[in-house]
Design a protein that fits this description.
The protein has about 200 residues and is α/β, with parallel strands linked by helices. The chain is built from 9 helices and 5 strands, in the order E-H-E-H-H-H-H-E-E-H-H-H-E-H.
Length: about 200
């Protein structure tokens, strides 16, 4: 059975970039954010739950998610963000397990990755053999998001509040990748890849 490994990191850490490096090594990668967006438009049970909680108006007449309206409702408070996560994460977990089983049948890769900022927050670590944490100093993370998404410092701090502190994630992770723009990424990835293949 293919090993399941998580790759996580707080906002602006560059986990997607690092995940892409693993993908270039032939490792299958499941992007939980992309899957969540897809599931909110395709999973009938999830759509039903979202409509029941937020109202039918969060979907258009042809069952397409009204992302702006959902964001207004779901990001109004920490408790509402938690509620949205509790609705979506089980569907993402099920989709990942199904995907990993399918990958196992067709891929010769020794392990696969699930990329998610909220691996620990969602409890996904319970289904994984190892977790990789991508880290970067907060000043660098904030600068990346300013340049990439025109995010303000206030928006960054707000988003940051809904994720575990980086030190907590580091302590619970099996491998650490430093993405500070100075430390070479490829060497770190190759080292972890080698260890995971031996496991």
């Amino acid at each position: 059975m293919i090993s399941k490994v998580g790759i996580t990191g707080n906002i602006g850490s560059g986990k997607s970039f690092v995940a892409a490096v693993f993908k270039n090594l032939g490792i299958p990668v499941f992007n939980s954010d992309e899957q969540a967006r897809e599931l909110m438009n395709s999973d009938r049970e999830l759509i039903r739950r979202l409509k029941n909680y937020y109202g039918k108006a969060v979907y258009t007449s042809d069952n397409k998610l009204n992302r702006v309206l959902l964001a207004e409702k779901a990001f109004s408070s920490a408790s509402e963000i938690s509620k949205l996560n509790n609705l979506v994460h089980p569907a993402v977990r099920d989709a990942f397990i199904k995907w990993a089983n399918e990958i196992n049948a067709v891929s010769s890769a020794p392990y696969c990755l699930i990329e998610s900022a909220l691996i620990f927050e969602a409890g996904f670590q319970d289904m994984l053999e190892a977790v990789i944490c991508v880290t970067a100093p907060e000043t660098i993370r904030m600068q990346r998001l300013k340049e990439r998404e025109n995010m303000t410092e206030e928006q960054f701090q707000c988003r940051k509040q809904h994720q575990w502190d980086e030190e907590m994630k580091i302590k619970k992770s099996d491998f650490i990748i430093i993405n500070d723009g100075i430390t070479p990424i490829l060497k770190q990835v190759l080292d972890i890849d080698s260890k995971l293949r031996k496991q």
